[in-house]
Design brief:
alpha+beta; Arc Repressor Mutant, subunit A; Beta-Lactamase; Enolase-like, domain 1; 3 domains; 13 helices; 10 strands; stress response; WH-like_DNA-bd_sf
Length: about 350
């Protein structure tokens, strides 16, 4: 998360801003000077508090709604609060126990696991839970099989270490018989099981270029099949979203036009996927408040994400999308802990080669 120059405020202003934001995040109402005088614990007069509030408003950290004498934090004020005024605590053990209990230790596939993560994040925060689906090539290959089809076509069955199965149909210049297909599968399984697709492609390319390589000797008629089986498939990454309707329960997001734009973004996923991919490129926790995300549909929202992966490789990001008025001190540890448990599960599901 970005650092903000919180030290530019003196101790009284920092304390009052912290109290105002905590009160606002709790009840969602503008906070008046009298309330601040009671909740801040500072021995200062209401007039002094009003003066400090005026200074904070001039600095763009709080704003006065037209219908109220109280003030609410601006996105800039919330950013300062999260970066330098909030005190994050480890996730409560009851919440951690719930995460461990509800994330299945051995899901059928990685996509099943990610769907559970998205739903669990939504249930624990009452916001929308999001998680990016990694490319299948991020997982080691477990096994490959070939099935002959008519017209010199072959069904390629790729089974990955996370139990996901990918089918491809390749067309060859001339058909191969069952013996040749079995020979090709045996060779590829013996030499390339446990490697990721990018590594397999690099090995194949190197062997194909070597005139006396074992691949060319044994599989002279199957080189084309081997190359086609591991060619880039153009697979697109995806993002899973759960609990979008939770956002309809928050007054600050209840405007119909805003909700329509937000739900269209969830449905089309393009902008959301761009944002999550950007988060995945910066390991750790990321937080966007309001316009910081750069996507108009999320202007009234905060996005909290954390990266996940396996065996030292970042594979994607998990997170939540909710109103800017969220309990950051709880939501951030929930997202962070979930990413850690997801990484643990992937390490178990896809052992390194």
């Amino acid at each position: 998360m970005r650092q903000h120059h919180g030290h530019e405020l003196d101790a009284r202003a920092r304390s009052l801003l912290r109290s105002l934001i905590a009160q606002y995040l709790s009840d969602g109402e503008p906070v008046g000077s009298r309330t601040l005088s009671r909740s801040s614990g500072l021995d200062v007069s209401p007039a002094t508090i009003r003066n400090i509030m005026a200074d904070l408003e001039e600095a763009g950290l709080v704003a006065s709604p037209h219908t109220s004498a109280g003030r609410i934090p601006t996105p800039r004020g919330l950013r300062l609060f999260v970066d330098s005024l909030i005190e994050l605590q480890p996730l409560h053990r009851d919440d951690m126990a719930r995460l461990r209990r509800e994330l299945p230790p051995q899901p059928a596939t990685t996509r099943d696991l990610l769907g559970n993560v998205s739903s669990l994040l939504s249930a624990m925060t009452h916001f929308a839970g999001v998680v990016t689906v990694p490319k299948q090539g991020d997982f080691p290959l477990r096994h490959i099989d070939f099935v002959a089809l008519p017209d010199a076509q072959v069904l390629v069955v790729l089974v990955f270490a996370d139990n996901q199965v990918q089918n491809r149909i390749v067309r060859l210049a001339k058909p191969l018989d069952n013996r040749e297909l079995e020979q090709a599968a045996n060779y590829l399984n013996a030499h390339f099981a446990g490697l990721r697709l990018d590594d397999i492609r690099a090995h194949l390319l190197r062997e194909i270029r070597e005139a006396g390589s074992e691949l060319n000797r044994l599989l002279a008629s199957s080189v084309e099949l081997a190359a086609a089986s591991f060619a880039p498939a153009g697979e697109g990454e995806d993002v899973l979203v759960s609990g979008q309707t939770n956002l309809m329960n928050y007054a600050e997001l209840a405007d119909l036009d805003r909700l329509r734009e937000l739900f269209e973004a969830f449905q089309k996923k393009n902008e959301l996927l761009q944002l999550m991919e950007m988060c995945a490129r910066a390991p750790g926790v990321r937080l966007f408040i309001g316009e910081e995300s750069g996507f108009t549909a999320l202007d009234g929202c905060s996005v909290v994400t954390a990266t996940y992966g396996a065996h030292g490789r970042v594979m994607g990001a998990v997170g939540v999308i909710g109103p800017t008025r969220m309990a950051y001190e709880r939501v951030i540890p929930v997202v962070q802990a979930t990413a850690g448990l997801l990484s643990d599960a992937l390490n178990r599901a896809a052992p390194t080669s």
